[in-house]
Amino acid sequence: MDFTLTEEQQDFRALLRTFVDREIIPVAREWEQTGRYPTEIVRGMAEMGLFGITVPEQYGGLDLDPVSFALVFEELARGWMGIAGILGSHSLACRMIAIHGTEEQKQAYLPDLATGARRTGIGLTEPDAGTDLQGIRTTARLDGDHYVVNGTKMWITNARYADPLPVLVKTDPHATPAHTGMSVLLVDATLDGFQVLRDIPKLGYKGTESCEILLDNVRVPKDRLLGGVEGVGLKQALSALEWGRVNIAARSVGIAQRAHDEALAYAQQRKAFGKYIAEFQAIQLKLATIAIQLQAARLMAYWAADAVRRGRADGQTGMAKVFCSEVALEAAIDAMKVHGGYGYSTEFEVERLYRDSILMSIGEGTNDILRTVVAKALVRGDLTV
Prior knowledge:
This protein is of the alpha+beta class. It has 12 helices and 8 strands. The strands form 3 sheets. It has a 4-stranded antiparallel beta sheet, with helices on one face. Strands 3-4 form a two-stranded antiparallel sheet. The chain has a two-stranded antiparallel ribbon with strand order 7-8. A hairpin with a 2-residue loop joins β1 (139-143) and β2 (146-157). It is globular and about 80 Å long.
């Protein structure tokens, strides 16, 4: 069994690491604390072609394999997890369009999405519907050659930049079961009636916007129905979640890696009782625990990514997302403890790692829900251990 990256993947990771070390890490803490949008970093990601990581090559994208996809989010999150969020939702939406879109939709959107000239996200969650997507209330009524869309969406990344925003709607609100009446529309944020109501205040995950949007009688051309078929919207949305869980697992690894780096460096420079604290066994135990868990999480994230490459991988990606997200939180907390009182100060990186890590157990399906996904995969026989 080969646990090593290919030479091409190693070179790609080195390129990403250089970008993060040069462009993100030096400014992340200051920009996060001042609420500054990372325009220059976004531009740099576009120049590297990172907005096209899930776009097929024929439309100008990089079309990365799932392991290389994971490397992108691991390295970005090592620098600043919020930056990874800007690219994450965009990449999943691009994949939805690439897999399910009509040829006309692919030609119209994917080339510009690949370069970052256009950006996108995903409009799924609502004030009363997060995990239970079949409970959404946003409707789309066909009126001639347009759908008239009404509803509210929450936690929308890239809301102000979305062009288009794939929005999950109910084209048949009375369908039973509910998912048979659900569709995805590609909604342009510049259309009349599309309003960004507010930025949702957050504990962490800053740098990227997370917005509440209102769709008030937004008229969306009929040809913006993803794939040109009604009633398959939930299936289309869920098809991207395997990659989404790899995304979150990899971000978690990046957070844990940074926690390890910060804790080790601090322990080797901080003195107490006349010795560097790295010489104390209590600190050594924490450093070792972070490193052990980090390595296990990284291998699980890559394993799940490779499972996606080989086919359906609900169980594997669920396992990786749960495990890696919990490792990220534990690593962040232990790194704070290594820093002592300074770990609670905003002058050091570790308090941000703690705030960012908490989201990893919630995003792309809560860990409790994903444990049921893993269990169902075991019962079906799709996953064996």
